[in-house]
Design a protein that fits this description.
Layout lengths: L3 E4 L9 H10 L5 E6 L11 H10 L4 E6 L7 H7 L3 E5 L6 H10 L3 E6 L17 E5 L14 H12 L4 E5 L7 H7 L3 E4 L1 H5 L4 H11 L3
Parallel strand pairs: 1-8, 2-3, 3-4, 4-5, 5-6, 6-7, 7-8
The structure holds D-xylitol-5-phosphate and zinc ion.
């Protein structure tokens, strides 16, 4: 099974965002991971639907929009209209996740549910049929460049057993080359990488190619 690669633009050069996105596409990325933060659910503010709309113009790749915002149901329509192909909400940020995930699907997007490092996988068990992806956070959300939390591997195995092939399992935060083989072996089907892709080594094209090779092992 091929694990999808979703570069996060959070650590890309926002002064040349379209170019950064096109370099990821050229490098063979499967999705573009777009981190939306509201300064309330997480201690950082990043971007809104207008930037998603600009990114939509720059690439044909699916936009994997990670909504790190309180009460995300308020903004589903506007992000969908801006071009989001997938919208992932946080279980911790929504009082009615079953309804919100259904609403994402009603809007024609893939529905994702994200769990913070402190949130047990079991809390998602009654939502598996409403989602197209379960996102296991490997850092506490809010910033790129944080260290990968090693207990994530066990959590990805639990998530993979829970969904049992019915939806994707995405891992997001602190992912580097060294994590890739064990994340794949643990059952991850999508990996997000931000600072590894945009801040390290030879640049996004080469870094994505290296991550692709590491996921083939
Ligand atoms: C963190 C975001 C992640 C992060 C990924 O809150 O959800 O997508 O930016 O960037 P790295 O790979 O640098 O942790
Ligand atoms: Zn993210």
């Amino acid at each position: 099974m091929t694990v999808k690669i979703a570069p996060s633009i959070l650590n890309a050069d926002f002064g040349h965002l379209a170019e950064a996105v096109q370099r990821a596409e050229k490098g063979g990325a499967d999705w573009i991971h777009v981190d939306v933060m509201d300064g309330a659910f997480v201690p950082n503010i990043t971007l809104g639907p207008m930037v998603v709309r600009a990114i939509r113009q720059a690439t044909k790749l699916p936009l994997d929009v990670h909504l790190m915002i309180d009460d995300p149901r308020r903004y589903l329509e506007v992000f969908r209209e801006a071009g989001a192909d997938g919208m992932t909400i946080h279980l911790e940020a929504d009082r009615h996740p079953h309804r919100t995930l259904s609403e994402i699907r009603r809007l024609g997007a893939r529905a994702g549910l994200a769990l913070n490092p402190g949130t047990p996988v079991e809390l998602a068990q009654d939502l598996v049929d409403e989602m197209d992806m379960l996102l296991v956070m490997s850092v506490n959300p809010g910033f790129g460049g944080q260290p990968f939390i090693d207990t994530t591997y066990r959590k990805v195995r639990q998530a993979s057993q829970l969904v049992c092939g019915r939806c994707d399992v995405e891992v997001d935060g602190g992912v580097k080359l060294t994590h890739a083989p064990l994340l794949k072996a643990s059952g991850a089907t999508v990996v997000v990488a931000g600072s590894f892709v945009y801040l390290e080594g030879e640049g996004p094209e080469a870094n994505i190619a290296a991550l692709r090779r590491a996921l083939l092992t």
